[in-house]
Write a structure and sequence with these properties.
- It contains 12 helices and no strands.
- The chain is globular, with a radius of gyration of 18 Å.
- The protein has 283 residues and is an all-alpha fold.
- It has one domain.
- α1 runs antiparallel to α9, α2 packs antiparallel against α8 and α3 packs antiparallel against α7.
- The C terminus is likely disordered.
- Helix content is 78%, strand content 0%.
Length: 283
């Protein structure tokens, strides 16, 4: 049993590394495709893969889940677009740390334990350490976009539970991803322009979609079958730290001591809050 859990924990860490590696690759495409053009490719390729995998029926949209599915698509589009726009302005580790405010808020609001006040204070301290100051290096606009991505992430968590109840398997996610891709399509075409017909850039966009969506979603689903949700939540709380490490290794994005301390506070607060949060409804 212990070996099974160890393998499952390794799967979760692999998924985290995959997501953040995908974000790092995406930043390298901004010069040719722009942030919104890169988002468009990620969503479009992810939608194609998910539709091929789950083969959703549009007739299901006639039921009560139609509104939530459309909102889910809006959340996906907003979360990814605002996050990539933030990545164009601030380092990966800082962007992910600020974005993590979203799932933290969901965890805090869903828990009634007194210890959560301490975790909330610790997370707030981390966020304050990352707050832009006059003459500082952290871009205020990028920070605001990362926080906006966090708000969309919170909506994504809530809506994914509802859509997961209304549709079998991942068919609801496939429909929502298609909606998100269509929403971003016009702005993405304008942002990327003629570079969208470059085979090399299309291949890189497909790689981002696989690294950021298809691979980690599949891995996390497998790991959740074997891991307690508290352990899964603690492992996921490592995401800001992993993002900082990948930003340093792949993108040469060094961080100041204050920024590293802020990430440490948010990781610790996330570990405590996500471990004590009530289990979400299976999507």
């Amino acid at each position: 049993m212990a070996s099974v859990q160890m393998r499952s924990m390794a799967l979760v860490l692999t998924a985290i590394v995959s997501v953040q590696s995908g974000a790092a690759v995406a930043t390298e495409l901004f010069a040719e495709l722009g942030p919104v053009g890169t988002v468009m490719l990620r969503l479009a390729f992810s939608a194609v893969v998910l539709v091929a995998l789950w083969r959703p029926s549009l007739r299901a949209l006639r039921g009560g889940g139609a509104r939530d599915t459309v909102l889910f698509g809006l959340a996906l589009a907003g979360m990814n677009t605002s996050f990539y726009l933030a990545l164009d302005r601030i380092p990966l580790g800082i962007a992910v740390t600020l974005e993590f405010v979203g799932p933290l808020a969901v965890a805090f609001l869903g828990s009634r334990q007194r210890s959560d006040l301490a975790w909330a204070t610790m997370a707030a301290l981390g966020i304050l350490l990352l707050a832009p100051v006059p003459g500082g290096e952290i871009d205020a606009g990028g920070s605001a976009l990362a926080l906006l991505a966090g708000a969309f992430w919170a909506a994504y968590i809530v809506l994914s539970q509802r859509v997961g109840q209304a549709f079998p398997g991942g068919s609801g996610l496939a429909i929502a991803m298609t909606i998100a891709a269509l929403l971003v399509l016009p702005a993405g075409i304008v942002d990327a322009g003629a570079n969208l017909i470059e085979p090399g850039l299309l291949a890189a966009g497909f790689a981002v979609a696989m690294l950021s969506s298809a691979i980690p979603y599949s891995i996390e689903l497998e790991a959740l079958r074997r891991l307690p949700r508290g352990v899964f939540g603690v492992l996921m709380s490592l995401e800001p730290a992993v993002a900082a490490g990948i930003g340093f290794v792949l993108l040469d994005q060094g961080l100041a001591a204050r920024e590293l301390a802020a990430i440490g506070f948010v990781v610790a607060a996330s570990a405590g809050a996500l471990r004590s949060a009530p289990p979400p409804i299976e999507a």
